[in-house]
């Protein structure tokens, strides 16, 4: 599939689901977005779809509570996953979150790849490392997107990229994309790599 056959602006929220029984029942390919709360998952979706606020973004973390399925031109779906690592979440809620995301990632046949978002400015958190290891363990194709690149001077990108890769024990056969929702750095490459996975 290429961007020529995919009208990326023809996108809408399809449904929100907490468990398998509520997932869409067809075999369209899905790409899920995972990452720390506030890292920019919803902004990434909006940027790729050229929309301002289709996926709800917030400066308050922990806003996305369910798996949100977005339909793109009836051909592909993005699945916005609630962010992890938000401190003000109870133990019980965290456990519920863990079950929800694990169920989706380990059982969903539609899943083609996970975009694992990290913040280009910082070393990955323990949760980031755990998520990457989880995806590798289950052999789920992963695309690492280092976001908020507009906040790091271009001359320091390489240094930050190396630090992130080292901490993740990054597999050099995975894609690594430097991205910004503010200036659209990495937008074309993100689409190219996502479409390669379908
Ligand atoms: N400067 C800059 N800010 C960004 C970028 N991406 C996201 N943000 C900001 O970061 C905040 C969080 O973005 P969201 O897209 O809501 O993050 P999220 O990962 O979906 O957060 P949760 O839904 O809580 O897990 C918002 O204030 C965004 O405007 C980026 O590339 N550059
Ligand atoms: Mg979000």
UniProtKB/TrEMBL annotation:
Residues 27-198 form the EngB-type G domain. CDD domains: YihA_EngB. Keywords: Cell cycle, Cell division, GTP-binding, Magnesium, Metal-binding, Nucleotide-binding, Septation. InterPro entries: G_ENGB_dom, GTP-bd, GTP-bd_ribosome_bio_YsxC, P-loop_NTPase, Small_GTP-bd. PROSITE patterns: G_ENGB (PS51706). Its cofactor is Mg(2+). It holds the Pfam family MMR_HSR1. Gene3D superfamilies: P-loop containing nucleotide triphosphate hydrolases. It comes from the Bacteria. Belongs to the TRAFAC class TrmE-Era-EngA-EngB-Septin-like GTPase superfamily. EngB GTPase family. Necessary for normal cell division and for the maintenance of normal septation. PANTHER family: ENGB-TYPE G DOMAIN-CONTAINING PROTEIN, MSS1/TRME-RELATED GTP-BINDING PROTEIN. This is Probable GTP-binding protein EngB. The gene is engB.
């Amino acid at each position: 599939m290429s961007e020529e056959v995919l009208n990326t602006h023809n996108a809408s929220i399809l449904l929100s689901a907490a468990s398998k029984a509520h997932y869409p029942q067809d075999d369209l390919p899905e790409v899920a977005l995972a990452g720390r709360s506030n890292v920019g998952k919803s902004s990434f979706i909006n940027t790729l779809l050229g929309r301002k606020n289709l996926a709800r973004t917030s400066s308050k973390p922990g806003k996305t509570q369910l798996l949100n399925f977005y339909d793109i031109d009836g051909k592909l779906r993005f699945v916005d996953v609630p962010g992890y690592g938000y401190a003000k979440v109870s133990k019980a809620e965290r456990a519920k979150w863990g079950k929800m995301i694990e169920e989706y990632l380990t059982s969903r046949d539609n899943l083609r790849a996970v975009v694992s978002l990290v913040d280009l400015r910082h070393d990955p958190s323990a949760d980031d490392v755990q998520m990457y290891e989880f995806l590798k363990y289950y052999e789920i194709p992963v695309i690492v997107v280092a976001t908020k690149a507009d906040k790091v001077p271009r001359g320091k990108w390489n240094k930050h990229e190396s630090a992130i890769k080292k901490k993740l024990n990054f597999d050099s056969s995975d894609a690594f994309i430097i991205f910004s929702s503010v200036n659209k750095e990495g937008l074309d490459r993100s689409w190219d790599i996502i479409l390669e996975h379908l």
